[in-house]
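<instruction>
Derive structure tokens from the sequence
<data>
Labelled lines for chain and fold
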Amino acid sequence: MQHSLTQTEIVSLGVLLFFLLLLLLAWGRHLRTLTPTRQFLKKYRRLNKLKKMEWHTFERLCQYLFTLEGWQVRSNEKAGADGGIDLWMKKWHKEAIVQCKKYEDAKVGIHVVREIYGLMHEHNIKEAYVVTTSEFTKECYRFVEGKKIVLIDGKGVVARIKAVL
């Protein structure tokens, strides 16, 4: 028995396909915003642009940069407060954690660096990074001496962006 579609069924199928196509296009746009590209990096290769970005975009940019440097990076899955860790990273036999601080003018203070140091011990991680769009206080640089904590200021982020472009 052969069943032919009624005009109403054909129209309904057409509408369904149309909305499915719209959904796929929207999903594709969404995925492109989640996966940064070199074009995305070019947009932020100047410090003034970097300082104006949203905090979540800065975290995504850091995640992408570390990925380009050979790390397997995952963002913190926790919704809301992240407990001081924005990114978890692995490269060969080592693991690291990252705290991203998006500031326009304020310097990152010692409390942020001490917090990441405590989190290294809490999670038994041997290496950490604190990345900012701004700068660090002198006290931060003194504190990390002899520790496996890397401080990357806004100029350092811009340099890393330019290095991969």
Remarks:
- The helical segments are 7-34, 38-43, 47-52, 55-68, 110-122, 138-144, 154-164.
